[in-house]
Amino acid sequence: MQQISFWRIWFMVGFLIAIFTSLQAQEAELTLDDLFARPKLTGTSPSQPVWAPNSEYFAFSWSEPGNSGRGLWVSMSDGEGLRLISNTKSPSVRDIAWTDANTILSLRGDQLWQTSVSKGVDLQLMPVEAGASNLSISPSGKQAAYIQNGDLWLADLSSKQNRQLTEIGIAPLSSLPKGRYSRAEREIGPGIWSGPTYKWSPDGMTIAIHVVDRREMRKVPFPDYLDAETNPNEVRRSYPGDPNEIRRVGLLDVASGNIRYLDLPDPHANQVIDFNWSPDGALLVDIASDTAVERMLFVVSPGESQVKGIWRGVRESRMYTSFGSSWHPDGQQVVFLSDLGDRYGLYTIDFLSSKDRPQLLTDPSYDVLSSPIIAGDALFYAGNGVNPYEQHVYRLKMSDGEPEQLTQLAGQNIGYPSPDGKHLVFMHSNDTSPPELYVAGSEDGTTKKITHSPLPAFTERTWTAAEYVSFPSLVDDYTLLARILKPTKMQPGKKYPVLFGPVYSNTARNRWAGNYSLVQQLLVKKGYIIVQVDSRGSNGYGRAFREEFLLGFADQDIEDYASAVAYMESLDYVDPDRIGIWGSSYGGTLSVYSLLMKPGLFQVGVAAAAAVDPMFFGTDDVAIVRTPQTDPEIFERKALKYAANLQDKLLFIHGMQDHVVPFKTVAVLAEELIKQGKDFDFAFAPGATHGWSREQHYDRYLFGKLIEYFDRHLAEPSK
Asked: CA-CA distance, 211 to 516, in Å (whole number)?
């Protein structure tokens, strides 16, 4: 019997070893098809949670691993009692709003659904106009507003009737409904890049609306070659120095439908950051110039339509920046995010005092990374107080004035406090984990994971965590930060290829970056070392480092990458002859200009959606390049001027429906390279937009081209 037991044990050990070996082999076989299969390996990430008015529950849309669509989920404030509360046969949930502490309204298809939390009853309440979005409940809970085709509609929850409140919306010029600039000629909604939509006043009698008019913008053709015949397909798309979209704030009287527009300065040159009502009905309006040089706060007193400026900040060196504002709990002060100091901070100012100066509320040693959220008697915000590559949620109680870090999980954390300020739900991700919802313990700091989104095929694999290293700049006294992913079980004496990418500012971050993260993991498993660098323009290193990017695109930040290459080449496991760079949008710009401005720094580059001619930048880009009228020399830095310098391998990737970086610009550069007798490669996608990396089919095809290109030129040492 003992001998039999021994052989049984031996057999089981061998069996387990075989299974383990098989699993290891299975992990090594990760493919591009695995990354882009449907359903996605990472599953469906939960939506932003929405709190019940009494702070007892929060709701969000989500689906469990492997399920399609988005259902309505509800949890108690402590994370207990999580349940799917919507009808599994109903369409996906788009928008969520609470009418009272027990009732949720949600948009699904062209219907408004009503859900009772206590009874678990989920019923189709009434139809709404096709394409309804931006659901919001009136303060009385008896009406629901929504946007449809650029106009505001009102759904009466008792009579179940829809009423159109405005006649503002004008259909898009474009006949192809895709691309960043394929937007309405006029609408209630955000600007092309940002902005609010509408918000109810506390008494429910007025709605503040954001009206955007694009009819004075330039008409630009983006040919649609997939139509029956080639369709010019014009869109409204301005260039630096052109007239921008006109952005106005109106006060809509709900009963009559009359609109009073606020007299705000230069609506064609200033963007509306946000607007918010105080508890007693004063409206705070936050605006900034498109150049980011000017920042202004205005208040409209209750029952009035005249604006009063309460603060104006001007700094010529300011560029792409973060803004946001809200009312202090006392209703007399305004809290706003600004860069008055070396780091972004939250400031307060009394709107009744014209002589009041902004007072800093937050720690000046690190950056505040989000707009302020007021909940209960506390102020919530995100910041990088631990290190530049992490983002945590902080709470500042107005009574004691000491910031408190609420999240402890290393990575990126985005907070959603309950209305009473006593509970916190946060979205967390890191290098190896996609975004999930957690609840933070109110007393002991513990966390409870609410959602588990990835498929088993994701969780059963081993994913590579990043290292974060610092090294000196070769051109000045800055210390630079890099995020590095290395292959597992690196062999002593072997030299590995290095890929920088995707390159951009603010990339050395412990967070999950969607398809980019999946592709990075695949490249690591194929034997590449992956590097990302926080180059000029990044947050976390002070104002000077951030603002050196102004009027300096593809300039000092390329020097940062040269410093990073020198650091990597100093490591004995790096092959200095096999270093590549890739990125999309401005990351594509960096890739092209690095090869043209510093030949030989990288042996291979892949430039996706690369902006190569500043004359064709967008009106939002005036924050970093200003205009041809004010800074003409910046607009002479076209990539084609340096085409003769190309000596390394270069692959362009571009979507022909890219409204942000017109395909025309890279075609002109390609023509010049051909005339110069240069060898390069091109992968285009006829229907892809600027967001090609997130578009089904195009993502698989174009990432496949990117990986194959690096494999062809860098995978093996040159002979």
From this structure: 35
Please count the CA atoms within 13 angstroms of the CA of 400 that sit on its side-chain side: 6
Q: Helix (H, G, I), strand (E, B), or coil: what is residue 614?
A: helix
- From the list 29, 26, 30, 64, the residue with the least C-alpha distance to 45 is 64
pLDDT at 137: 98
Query: What is the identity of the amino acid at 213?
Result: D
What is the largest distance, in Å, between two alpha-carbon atoms of the chain? 96
Distance CA 233, CA 228 (A): 13
d(CA 698, CA 693): 7
Cα(170)–Cα(574) distance, rounded to whole angstroms? 57
What lies within 8 Å, CB to CB, of 542 at 6+ separation is 342, 343
Instruction: Give me the residue label for tokens 């600039």.
Output: 181
The owner of tokens 């890279």 is 666
> What whole-number distance in Å separates Cα of residue 246 and Cα of residue 450?
42
Is residue 717 within 8 A of residue 256, CB to CB? The reply is no
List Cα–Cα distances, 403 to 65, 335, 350, 382, 440, in angstroms: 37, 15, 21, 11, 16
Q: Which residue has the tokens 């070659």?
A: 225
Q: What's the pLDDT at 683?
A: 98
| Secondary structure, 3-state, 7-70 | HHHHHHHHHHHHHHHHHHHHHCCCCHHHHHCCCCCCCCCCCCCEECCCCCEEEEEECCCCCCCC
Instruction: Extract the residue ranges of the chain whose pLDDT is less than 70.
Output: 1-28, 354, 442-445, 719
Q: What are the structure tokens assigned to 194, written together?
A: 């940002």
Distance CA 222, CA 7 (A): 72
Q: Which two tokens stand for residue 145?
A: 């507003």
Q: Return the H-helix or E-strand segment holding 625.
A: helix 622-625
Enclosing H/E stretch for 314: strand 307-314
92-137 pLDDT, tens per residue? Answer: 999 999 999 999 999 999 999 999 999 999 999 999 999 999 999 9
What beta strand segments (E) does 203-262 contain?
Answer: 206-213, 219-221, 234-236, 246-253, 259-261
DSSP state of 631: -
Residue 444 has what pLDDT?
A: 64
Instruction: Tell me if residue 265 falls in helix, strand or coil.
Output: coil
Q: Edge-to-edge strand order for the sheet containing 324-327?
A: 324-327, 333-338, 345-350, 359-360
HEC per residue, 546-594: HHCCCCCCCCHHHHHHHHHHHHHHCCCCEEEEEEEEEEECHHHHHHHHH
Asked if 529 contacts 484 with a C-beta cutoff of 8 angstroms, the reply is yes
CA proximity to 257, closest of 325, 188, 163: 163
What was the pLDDT predicted at 92?
97
Residue 50, phi then psi, degrees to nearest 5: -125, 125
φ, ψ dihedrals at 399, nearest 5°:
-75, -40
Collapsing DSSP to helix, strand or coil, 160 comes out as: coil
Per-state percent for the chain, helix, strand, coil, to nearest 5: 20, 35, 50
Q: Reduced to 3 states, what is the DSSP secondary structure of residue 118?
A: coil
Measured CA to CA in angstroms, residue 214 lies from 218, 267, 422, 502, 517 at distances of 9, 12, 43, 33, 36
Are the C-beta atoms of residues 22 and 460 closer than 8 Å to each other?
no
- Residue 63 tokens read as 């689906």
Cβ atoms of 536 and 385 closer than 8 Å: no
For 427, other C-beta atoms within 10 Å of its C-beta total 21
Round to whole Å and give the CA distance between 578 and 327.
54
Q: How far is it, in rounded angstroms, from Cα 639 to Cα 680?
A: 14
The secondary structure of residue 150, as a DSSP letter, is: T
Rounded to whole angstroms, the Cα distance separating 86 from 280 reads 36
CB atoms within 10 A of CB 121: 12
Instruction: List beta partners, residue 429.
Output: 412
Determine how many CB atoms are found less than 10 A away from the CB of residue 279.
10
Residue 429, helix vs strand vs coil = strand
